[in-house]
Backbone:
């Protein structure tokens, strides 16, 4: 009997302890692309500090909506908000990790990295202008590669996605036709092709359709061993999609000249830079009603910047360059409590 | 008789408390029913309000245009509406004969030993979550369909013929036809389970009289059993159709998700539900969100019309 009382008391005490810890818990919602690394960071952070992160991977658009409605402490998005939109929403934005979007194919007899593509070629394929793999336009950049006489099946994302935003923005940059006819958004009016739901949907369609081309996040292409294409970058070199080349793109980007960190890492200079590289972002309110909450959010990401690089690399993301992290930390001074003091230093 | 008389009448027929409880019970039931009606009304009102910007902007063109362009912010529902009706209609076409066959076999022909396993198998089909159907459709059924059905048909078409146009498409099995077949499998258990229950309600004398008059099994089923349950059968079919119209996840996985009208039997398309599932989470533009909500209202109207038609048919049958 006495023992049972003790267990009951212990249970109550542990509940109280959990309640106390909850004060430092933070909640976020948004992009699915960085969700695995946020989960990994949150796990390590909780083990070290006892503070928990509750992150809902509901998509970038959802993240923007949720932080706008203040239902979460931070929002996450792959599609950066323009400085005007940030100001209008009273939001501050900063990048966390970098990743790449990779064109993947299903070509019988062709191995990963054998096919070389340029931005305009990719745009013409997605516009339905280049319809076959043995098109002379493709042969020009692929001397010596025996491209099959096969129709091209274009595969794109059917769901609105930050990945599509990055991809279509890149096509808009490289091809005037794409910019004027289709444009860049997280979902667009695709001129041709099939829509697969999510990275796995696109990957499944590509794998099942000989002659198909699609685009997926790098981690997805790598983990599934998909046949990727080399892309021509700004320096004119054909580069492989890998972490080192994403890093090169990030290193060459001019973050200082990007107000509110509105920066797409697309088509950056540098011999090794992968042309379809992108960062993913966090959104927080610049005016924090609850200073402690704001502090907890920034403390978490500061901790991630300090301790999270290895975990990010392990999951095939590229950590931010140290200089960019310092720029982000400096930008946090504008996240203030109601009395105008920065919430985190 | 004597036993009855001996029973003491302990309680009066109705106490004041009983009457009050009765009133309360009535009020609760009335409340439950009206609450549902109010929720339905609220749903319609919020769909109209949410979708209003789209209706105001596009007017009637929203219903006849198949243009769906989130960059230019031009939205039309026609492609998704056609996709919804075609996929649900085809699904019903495939499912109905199968479901009827299953139900008739189980009730009229099945050896008792087999009745339970087959019945359970059909019921199990109803319990599988739709996402599982979607994944099975995408990873198992679509590739099989492409290899063994779609490719041979496409290969057999001579270039330049109408047959080639009709069978054109991407040879990977994703499209409206595949989605319809998966949908058919999904609605089959609902239709066949209801049919079976209906057939079981036929009094044994009716059936046996028919046999007694020298009818064959087929004649009994066609001329006695089926006409007997016709009214309920229409309801069962409509129930299946309603489910097919609104099915989301499985369809999203395998329909190919192309906006616009389908141009061939292997074409990919989209349905109202799949469009909403694909785009709602990421729709940040006001007009985009409004158009998706307006699509929801259109689906609501379609489903309501189907159910109303069913009622009408049942009503007519009952009077006849």
Residues:
């Amino acid at each position: 009997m006495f023992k049972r009382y003790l267990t009951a008391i212990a249970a109550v005490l542990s509940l109280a302890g959990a309640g106390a810890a909850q004060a430092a818990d933070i909640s976020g919602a948004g992009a699915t692309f960085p969700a695995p690394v946020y989960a990994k960071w949150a796990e390590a952070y909780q083990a070290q500090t006892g503070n928990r992160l509750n992150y809902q991977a509901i998509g970038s658009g959802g993240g923007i909506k949720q932080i706008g409605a203040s239902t979460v402490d931070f929002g996450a998005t792959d599609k950066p908000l323009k400085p005007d939109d940030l100001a209008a929403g009273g939001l501050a934005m900063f990048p966390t990790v970098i990743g790449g979007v990779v064109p993947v194919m299903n070509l019988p007899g062709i191995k990963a990295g054998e096919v070389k593509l340029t931005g305009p070629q990719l745009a013409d394929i997605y516009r339905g202008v280049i319809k076959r793999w043995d098109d002379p336009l493709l042969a020009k950049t692929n001397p010596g590669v025996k491209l099959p006489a096969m129709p091209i099946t274009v595969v794109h994302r059917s769901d609105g996605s930050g990945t599509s935003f990055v991809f279509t923005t890149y096509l808009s940059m490289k091809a005037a036709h794409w910019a004027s006819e289709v444009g860049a958004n997280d979902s667009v009016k695709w001129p041709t092709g099939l829509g697969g739901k999510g990275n796995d949907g696109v990957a499944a369609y590509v794998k099942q359709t000989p002659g198909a081309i699609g685009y997926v996040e790098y981690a997805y292409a790598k983990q599934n061993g998909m046949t990727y294409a080399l892309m021509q970058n700004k320096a004119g070199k054909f580069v492989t999609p890998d972490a080192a080349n994403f890093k090169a793109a990030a290193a060459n980007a001019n973050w200082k000249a990007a107000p509110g960190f509105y920066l797409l890492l697309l088509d950056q200079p540098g011999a090794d830079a992968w042309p379809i590289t992108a960062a993913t972002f966090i959104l927080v309110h610049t005016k924090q009603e609850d200073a402690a909450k704001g502090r907890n959010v920034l403390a978490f990401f500061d901790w991630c910047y300090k301790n999270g690089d290895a975990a990010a690399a392990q999951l095939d993301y590229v950590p931010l360059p140290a200089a960019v992290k310092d720029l982000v930390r400096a930008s946090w001074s504008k996240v203030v409590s109601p009395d105008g003091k920065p919430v985190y230093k | 008789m004597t036993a009855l008389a001996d029973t003491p009448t302990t309680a009066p027929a109705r106490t004041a408390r009983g009457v009050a409880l009765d009133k309360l019970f009535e009020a609760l039931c009335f409340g439950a029913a009206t609450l549902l009606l109010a929720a339905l009304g609220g749903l319609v009102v919020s769909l109209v309000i949410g979708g209003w910007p789209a209706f105001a902007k596009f007017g009637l063109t929203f219903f006849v245009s198949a243009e769906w362009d989130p960059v230019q912010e031009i939205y039309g529902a026609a492609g998704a509406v056609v996709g919804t009706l075609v996929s649900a209609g085809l699904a019903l076409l495939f499912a109905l004969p199968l479901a009827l066959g299953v139900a008739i076999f189980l009730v009229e022909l099945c050896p008792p030993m087999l009745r339970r396993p087959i019945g359970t198998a059909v019921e199990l089909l109803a319990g599988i979550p739709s996402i599982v159907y979607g994944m099975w459709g995408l990873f198992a059924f679509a590739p099989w369909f492409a290899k063994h059905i779609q490719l041979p048909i496409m290969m057999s078409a001579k270039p330049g013929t109408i047959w080639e146009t009709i069978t054109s498409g991407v040879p990977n099995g994703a499209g409206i036809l595949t989605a319809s077949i998966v949908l058919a499998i999904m609605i089959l258990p609902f239709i066949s389970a209801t049919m079976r229950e209906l057939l079981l309600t036929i009094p044994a004398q009716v059936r046996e009289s028919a046999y007694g008059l020298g009818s064959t099994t087929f004649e009994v089923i066609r001329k006695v059993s089926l006409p007997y349950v016709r009214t309920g059968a229409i309801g069962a079919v409509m129930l299946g159709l309603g489910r097919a119209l609104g099915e989301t996840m499985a369809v999203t996985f395998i329909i190919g998700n192309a906006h616009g009208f389908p141009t061939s039997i292997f074409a990919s398309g989209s349905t109202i539900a799949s469009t909403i599932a694909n785009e709602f989470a990421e729709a940040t533009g006001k007009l985009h969100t409004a158009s998706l909500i307006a699509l929801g209202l259109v689906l609501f109207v379609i489903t309501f019309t189907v159910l109303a038609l069913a009622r009408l048919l049942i009503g007519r049958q009952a009077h006849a």
Observations:
- Chain B touches chain A through 32 residues (CB under 8 Å).
- Residues 16-58 of chain B form the longest helix (43 residues).
